[in-house]
Structures are given as structure tokens and as C-alpha cells.
Amino acid sequence: MPSSIPTSFDEQLANAKRSAVHLEMRDTYYSNPRFEAWQKGERVNWDDRASWWRPFHQDIADAVARGVVVRRARIVSEPVSDYIRWEHYQTRANVEAGEQVRWLPRRRTADLLMPGCDFWIFDNQVIRVHDFSGTGGWLGEEFFDDRALVELNASAFEDIWERAVPHDQYEVR
Q1: Which of 3, 47, 87, 105 is most buried per CB count within 10 Å?
Q2: How many distinct helices (H) and strands (E) make up the chain?
Q3: How far apart are CA 121 and CA 145, in angstroms?
Q4: How far apart are the first and last CA of the chain?
Q5: In whole numbers, what is the pLDDT of the chain averaged over residues?
Q6: Which helix (H) or strand (E) holds 152?
Q7: Largest Cα–Cα distance in the chain?
Q8: Cα–Cα distance between 95 and 84 in angstroms, integer?
Q9: According to the model, what pLDDT value does residue 5 have?
Q10: What is the bridge-based pairing of β-strands 100-105 and 69-76?
Q11: What is the rounded radius of gyration, in angstroms, for the C-alpha atoms of the chain?
Q12: Contacts 24+ apart (CB under 8 A), 34-42
């Protein structure tokens, strides 16, 4: 990877001019205190924005305000895992930050070619590939600007996006 590629998500998003797309394909990710609290019955007070608005949400809102279209597609097994049920609940924060989010049941993907890893693509120029353990633990990320790699994954994302259900229409099962 050339050293000219910014190697942080924050830099990539801050430098994006047109688009940032994110593909998520796991049914569970590493646990975190917010998920654990949700499992215990705690719910977000959506009227108290300061309690749930995070720097990530502000970064997304800033990008959208600059004209960057931010889209996230999630491929999920049904019935969904508790983690995905929580993600669906929490997605309100992403949407309020300006992200467009869609959901695609895994059973509707048999005829799609899909990447093996979650990723972000910025302006169809750079891909940030995520690496997770089998139990959902974060192992790391890599950034690539290889044109063929970016185009292949961007094409897969668009196929998934076209078939996926908008967040406000997707019911967790």
C-alpha cells in the first residue's frame, strides 16, 4: 500500500468528496457496553441526543453536509441474531447522522457475487477492508487503492444495495 493513502477511517471520511459506502456481512460483532446494556433492557433516550450522539455520528453528519453520500448495506441471516436486532434498533442514530441504510436477508443473495470481508469504499478510489475473528473480534484493517479491487467491491456493493430493503421498511425477524 503506498504511503500516500491516509490510513485512518477519520482521514478517509474527511477527505471524501462524493461517496462513502459500507458493507457489513456478519451476524455478530465484538460485544460492547452499549450492546450489553441493551441486552439488559436499557434503551436509548432518543430525545437526549447528547446521550447517544458519538464522534462517529458527527463525522458522518459533517461528510453529508459537505455533499458526501454515505450508504451502508447490511446482509443478515434471518431470524436475526440479538446483535443484529440491537444494530437495527441503534441504526436510528446512523440515519439521524445522514447515512442511508439498507438491509438484505442473506437468503436473497444466492445469485450475487459478494466480497469475503466487510469494507468501506471512499469516492470509488480507496477501500478499507476489515478483518474479524470467527467470534467477531476486531483484528484490523487494510487500505488499498488498487483500481481493480476497488471496482470489483464497488460493483458488488451496488448489486447488494439495489436489492436491499431501506431501513425504515425492514422488519427484524
Answers
A1: 87
A2: 6, 7
A3: 10
A4: 41
A5: 95
A6: helix 147-163
A7: 46
A8: 16
A9: 80
A10: parallel
A11: 16
A12: 34/90, 35/83, 35/86, 38/86, 38/89, 38/90, 39/82, 39/86
